[in-house]
Write a structure and sequence with these properties.
The complex is a heterotrimer. Chain A is α+β, with helices and mostly antiparallel strands. Chain A is 40% helix and 15% strand. Chain A has helices at residues 22-28, 62-65, 77-89, 99-112, 118-124, 136-150, and strands at 2-7, 10-15, 47-50, 53-56, 69-71. Chain B is α+β, with helices and mostly antiparallel strands. Chain B has 19 helices and 28 strands. In chain B, the strands form six sheets. In chain B, strands 3-5-1-12-9-10-11 form a seven-stranded mixed beta sheet, with helices on both faces. Chain B has a six-stranded mixed beta sheet with strand order 7-15-14-13-8-28, with helices on both faces. By secondary structure, chain C is α+β, with helices and mostly antiparallel strands. Chain C has three domains: 2-45, no CATH class; 54-158, Uridine Diphospho-n-acetylenolpyruvylglucosamine Reductase, domain 3; 162-260, 2-Layer Sandwich (Enolase-like, domain 1). The termini of chain C are far apart. Classes of the chains: A alpha+beta, B alpha+beta, C alpha+beta. Chains in contact: A-B, A-C, B-C. The B-C interface holds B 643-644, 646, 683-684, 686, 688, 696-697, 701-702, 704-710, 763-765, 768-769, 772 and C 168, 170-175, 177, 238-241, 244, 247-248, 251.
Chain lengths: 151, 785, 262
């Protein structure tokens, strides 16, 4: 079937099988920033925004996205680069495989939660797994990032 | 000891951080060529069977399928997948494809097609008739079982490792110091217990992947998510009967490994397809395949006996270990030995020590390398036992350890007895701040010997427990790393290293070491790593070797580079060598007058110096004469819900001596990540098989790793320490973080409930069952006089 | 997942025809179907049918079948009526991303054992509204065998109950080893236990043991918990054994009752 989605603001026409998931389709269309790590919706690495709402793209059938807008980390590059600086400054990005999905989720969190506590951030971001960092560095980075954002 | 460094001991951001966060295509599967054949594997549904017949005709006829390969299409060469030096201490017991399948998920056939759908279609059309065999699923009854998992005549060990496949034994080992039974008989208190650890899964976020192609010279090029490109090249050359000159292996960015990629994994499959078809070929495993068909940690049973006197002197440590290596013997002997070599020296004053046992085959997922590498299992048993001893002696667990633990300037007989697969190297411990780690950790956690457990609400108990640990820094006289520096115009330097950055940041810290030694900014070091065609040899990232071994090689190369630069300047400017000083920016005479700036000279030597023009390079290699251990003290504060058995992490304090931290932020994050993996092994990473040998915990819904809300607060501090043999005083920090949580948490649970849990993970059900059973530790009374 | 034909109808009548007459597989969030269904000749995407709402409807709250778990988690309407109950029953699962696509209708229609929200809906005696006029209570629906194809439109929960949800999981965002909900309405308790690992069931003996006492003592709550543990069935899976679940049931039911009594 033919799928028309806007990816990062650009129209995208794809021929896919209806049973394919959005993560596979995006990667085949060249969006390698969308990572596949678990296939069951548990890890958050495939997170994209569907009409601005974060979803696990591995668990979304491509037909659902038809006619809608998808944003990956590269669609919010400027904000992501700013956040990236704070994460890098803490050494909190290790292998980097979880980072694009994590960064995108942080930007989504900023829109949904005003002044979250660390506990609220941990809860909001719980669906983004990281096996390298132990998570603590992320929160050191986020505390500084959100403070700089407020200031 | 506290030195002022310009580049080292600074938290320089990782050179690849921003690019990776923004999702640059950098990992193996991102880089695979568009037109590569998609490779998929047909896997055994049975734990043990012989392939009686395999029909690939219908599968091969599917439109878009380029080839289907079975064991009949592959040259039969036994090899090992273990990423280790040559000769490998692991048995050569693996064929790329075999007539036998030895675990559920074992590869039966390789399919390569133009696209995924055709490959999947072909898989469904492969017809296999199996002759079913009775699987061996219980590692405690594997040795001398009537069922032999590896009857093949061609398999062999490379040197004696106790390989007895007809008894299902992959390796065995035994060592002793002094007379264990005699010292036990003399001891006031003797305790005995058996401990069990599970076959933890690495769960690196990036699934295993590789792609291959033939370049214009007809050479096989392989990109792989690997920890050891050079071993991969050598092992593939052997398994594929290809001269090493015809193979190139490149490691791009890797999305985590933790030991899971210290093996050949999917490379042979894409290589075979490329060699057969001439086409590029790619594969990326699903998460299910990573669980079922890559590697896991060695499951162990450790029978421990300790003997001590009433004053707290530890006389005897006796460890009898049974290790489960699964279907194939990768890392069997070496993981086994590290269970003793990286635990026993903690208590170097014991009069008698024994460490021995065997590693057995079972028809389960093959165990292999995993951070800690035996030390975490050994630590769980030993450090749990130390607390039992403390309780029996009515002593503070910390006081007991302080009385017996190793101190700076001391040695242990274990160092020269136990190496990695063979004998070790004698070593005096020149840097050991374990005493400080314990004292400082006590402060941070608020350790009060009389108040290690207290009720916070009806049925909810808070408690503290601790453990100490050591690890190593590379394998002496076995692990070797090299580095080459080359001056570029513009005054910067190419740094070519074989060392393998897995996300750990080694590219960055090795650049820092080079920069420090040369006196130049880190940003003037251009790193290129892990490409067997273009970088000098390095064993790869394992055994906590990169900072110490590869780091020393980089430092030596940089020192040599400084000399080479001075020699060239002296030659050009007609000066004696000792008249030329270099401070990183310029070359000057001893009276301070500038001869020439570095940047200027870099142009001179490449463009202006006429007959004297030359490329200035320096190469150095390093192998350790010893393996200076990092040390740490870990302290857990937990809360136990005694009605349900649930254990929550409140805090984990770790004070670490890793010598100089080349990059404090990265060292801290390595520690925090390691600690959380240890907490996962201790509390929630349960492994379950069904009675037919099928792994049930084979995805992230059923295999639970700690989330952001399960960490509690993790607090890491580093001791001021300096290892004279390390680059700028550094030791390793990669593995040690994982070692202490199982024992520290078990000890806290013991303080909370009076119960000794001896099997990981301490799931709510396991703790609850123990609470209901109210088990007492078994105790052997000392013999009467 | 293999899908032959994919339709996204714009009206409920269209969707119903595709499901009933052409045996289409209803796809709500899609989160579970892609894991549990290998192939479907026809998939019917329900996302354009305007069934995504949570609304105050006088004496009850109506939850559209396509309301997501995240909608439920954040719903002020549900919070106003039931306090933190619905947030407690949804906020654990995996992550915000997954909760943005999981639907209440999907969880109910799938009768999933692991579902937390099904246990709450059972305890609250939710009423299920199907296209075509059929109505059935949650308990009967969960217990009934899979029947003819259907299209679930909305779930109604009557106001006036105070209820609490309890669960235990190995990690904070794992599926529950066991869950329980205790609800008190108009002089009677309903005790539901789910993730047994099978789908939620009522502990009728437990409820009877409490009588019409709206704020039972700790001892009474404990007895009710033990009654629930004795009367319900439990099984083994990777998360826990039947024996453990039975013991856990007594504890979680007791805690749910005491929390609902506050």
């Amino acid at each position: 079937m033919t799928i028309n989605i806007k990816v990062n603001g650009k129209p995208c026409h794809l021929e896919c099988n209806p049973g394919e998931n959005l993560a596979d389709v995006l990667r085949m269309a060249g969006h390698t920033e969308v990572k596949k790590a678990c296939g069951t919706g548990n890890c958050g690495l495939c997170t994209v925004l569907l009409d601005g709402v974060p979803v696990p793209s591995c668990s979304v059938l491509v037909g659902r996205a038809n006619g809608h807008e998808v944003t990956t980390i590269q669609g919010v590059e400027k904000e992501a680069a700013e956040l990236a600086g704070f994460i890098a400054a803490e050494g909190a990005e290790q292998c980097g495989f979880c980072s694009p999905g994590f960064a995108l989720m942080v930007l989504a969190m900023k829109k949904e939660l005003a002044s979250p506590s660390e506990a609220e951030m941990r809860h909001y971001l719980a669906g983004n797994l990281c096996r390298c960092s132990g998570y603590e560095g992320h929160f050191r980075a986020l505390a500084k990032y959100l403070e700089a954002d407020r200031g | 000891m506290a030195k002022e460094f310009k580049a080292v001991n600074h938290s320089v951001p990782k050179i690849d951080a921003t690019g990776l966060i923004l999702g640059s295509p950098a990992y193996t599967d991102d880089l695979a060529p568009r037109d590569a054949l998609v490779v998929k594997l047909f896997r055994s549904p049975h734990a043990f069977a012989k392939i009686a017949a395999i029909d690939i005709e219908k599968a091969s006829a599917v439109p878009g399928v380029a080839c289907v390969l079975s064991w009949k299409d592959v040259e039969r060469i036994p090899y090992t997948r273990a990423g280790q030096g040559h000769p490998e201490p692991s048995p050569h017991d693996k064929f790329i494809l075999d007539e036998y399948v030895r675990y559920v998920g074992d590869e039966v056939a390789i399919v390569a097609a133009e696209d995924e759908a055709s490959a999947v279609k072909a898989l469904s059309l492969i017809d296999v008739k199996y002759e079913m065999l009775e699987p061996v699923l219980d590692f405690e009854s594997a040795a001398d079982n009537s069922v032999i998992i590896h009857p093949e005549p061609e398999i062999h060990e490379m040197f004696p490792i106790g390989f007895k496949p007809k008894r299902n034994i992959a390796a065995s080992y035994d060592m002793k110091i002094g007379d264990v039974e005699k010292e036990l008989a003399k001891s006031d208190v003797v305790l005995q217990k058996a401990f069990y650890t599970q076959s933890q899964a690495h769960v690196a976020m990036e699934p295993h992947a590789a792609f291959s192609y033939l370049d214009l010279h007809g050479r096989l090029n392989i990109y792989s998510s690997t920890q050891n490109p050079f071993h991969t090249r050598r092992l593939l050359g052997q398994a594929l009967s290809l001269p090493l000159a015809r193979i190139r292996v490149i490691k791009p960015r890797v999305g985590g490994a933790f030991g899971g990629k210290q093996h050949i994994h999917v490379e042979p499959f894409v290589a075979l397809v490329t060699l057969k078809t001439g086409r590029p070929a790619r594969i990326a495993l699903s998460r299910k395949e990573v669980f079922e068909a890559t590697f896991c940690r060695h499951q162990m049973r450790i029978n421990m006996r300790v003997g001590a006197d009433r004053d707290g002197s530890l006389n005897v440590i006796d460890m009898n270990v049974l290790s489960n290596t699964g279907a194939y013997g990768e890392h069997a002997l070496t993981v086994f030995m590290v269970g003793g070599s990286k635990t026993l020296p903690l208590y170097n004053k014991a009069k008698a020590v024994h460490y021995g046992g065997k590693v057995v085959y079972t028809n389960k997922v093959s165990a292999g390398a995993f951070r800690g590498y035996g030390a975490i299992q050994g630590n769980f048993a030993l450090e749990s036992m130390m607390d039992e001893l403390a309780h029996a002696l009515a002593m503070d667990p910390i006081a007991l350890r302080e009385k017996n633990m190793i101190r700076e300037g001391e040695t242990s007989e274990v160092f020269h007895i136990m190496g990695e697969g063979s004998e070790g190297i004698e070593m005096v411990v020149e840097s050991c701040k374990l005493d400080y780690c314990v004292t400082r950790g006590k402060e941070l956690i608020g350790w009060e010997p009389g108040r290690l457990a207290w009720e916070v609400a009806p049925g909810r108990v808070r408690a503290k427990g601790m453990a100490i640990a050591m690890q190593g820094s590379g394998i002496p006289l076995v692990d070797m790393g090299s580095a080459t520096l080359e001056l570029q115009d513009g005054g910067c330097f190419k740094l070519r290293i074989g060392a393998t950055d897995l996300g750990t940041g080694s590219d960055t810290i090795l650049a820092q070491i080079a920069a420090e030694e040369l006196g130049v900014p880190v940003s003037d070091i251009i790193v290129y790593a892990s490409d067997t065609d273009h970088t000098p040899f390095d064993v790869g990232a394992y055994a906590s070797s990169t900072t110490y071994v590869s780091g020393n090689a980089v430092k030596a190369a940089a020192a040599r580079m400084s000399q080479v630069l001075r020699e060239a300047v002296a030659e050009q400017h007609h000066l004696a060598l000792d008249e030329v000083r270099f401070d990183g920016l310029r070359f000057a005479k001893s009276d301070g007058t500038t001869i020439v700036g570095l940047k200027e000279f870099s142009f001179d030597t490449l463009y202006h110096n006429g007959a004297l023009m030359k490329t200035l390079t320096a190469t150095a290699s390093f192998t350790g004469q010893k393996s200076p251990p990092p040390y740490m003290a870990g302290f857990a504060e937990i809360e136990v819900d005694t009605e349900t058995g649930k254990v929550d992490m409140i805090r984990y304090v770790a004070v670490v001596d890793c010598g100089t931290t080349i990059n404090p932020n990265l060292a801290r994050v390595q520690m925090e990540g390691g600690i959380l993996q240890g907490i996962g092994m201790a509390l929630c990473e349960n492994v379950k098989y069904n009675d037919k040998g099928r792994l049930l915990t084979n995805n992230l819904m059923t295999y639970t790793v700690p989330s952001r809300e399960d960490t509690g607060k993790i607090i890491v501090e580093f001791a001021e320490s300096y290892e004279p043999s390390g680059p700028f005083g550094a030791k390793s920090v990669a593995e040690i973080g994982i070692d202490t949580p199982p024992a520290a948490i078990a000890n806290a649970i013991r303080n909370a409930t009076g119960l000794r849990i001896t099997e990981t993970p301490f799931t709510p059900e396991r703790v609850f069952s123990a609470l209901r059973r109210k088990e007492e530790p078994s105790r052997l009374p000392p013999p009467k006089e | 997942m293999e899908i032959g034909r994919y339709e996204r109808p714009k009206t409920i009548e269209e969707a119903y025809a595709l499901i009933v007459e052409e045996h289409g597989l209803p796809v709500a969030g899609g989160a579970w179907s892609h894991l549990m269904v290998k192939s479907a000749p026809l998939a019917v995407d329900l996302s354009d049918l305007e069934m995504r709402y949570i609304r105050d409807a006088g004496d009850r709250v109506e939850i559209g079948a396509m309301a997501t778990a995240r909608d439920v988690e954040l719903s002020l309407t549900l919070a106003a009526e039931f306090g933190p109950l619905f947030r407690d029953a949804t906020s654990h699962l995996v992550g915000v991303q997954l909760r943005n696509i999981i639907t209440v209708g999907g969880s109910v229609a799938g009768k999933y054992g692991f579902s937390d929200i099904n246990t709450v809906l059972l305890a609250l005696n939710a009423e299920l509204y199907f296209h075509g006029g059929q109505r059935i209570d949650m308990g009967s629906f969960l217990a009934a065998p899979r029947d003819k194809p259907f299209l679930l439109e909305k779930i109604a929960v009557r106001k006036g109950a105070r209820a609490a949800f309890q669960s235990l999981r190995v990690t904070a965002n794992d599926f529950a080893i066991l869950n329980a909900c205790a609800a008190y309405r108009e002089g009677a308790w309903r005790i539901a236990v789910g993730a047994r690992p099978a789908a939620a069931r009522l502990g009728t003996e437990a409820a009877r043991a409490l009588g019409n006492e709206g704020r039972p003592s700790e001892a009474a709550a404990r007895r009710a918990g033990e009654a629930a543990a004795a009367e319900l069935g439990f099984g083994d899976d990777t998360r826990g054994s039947a024996i453990y679940r039975r013991s856990l049931c007594a504890v979680l039911v007791k805690r749910a009752i005491l929390e609902a009594s506050k």
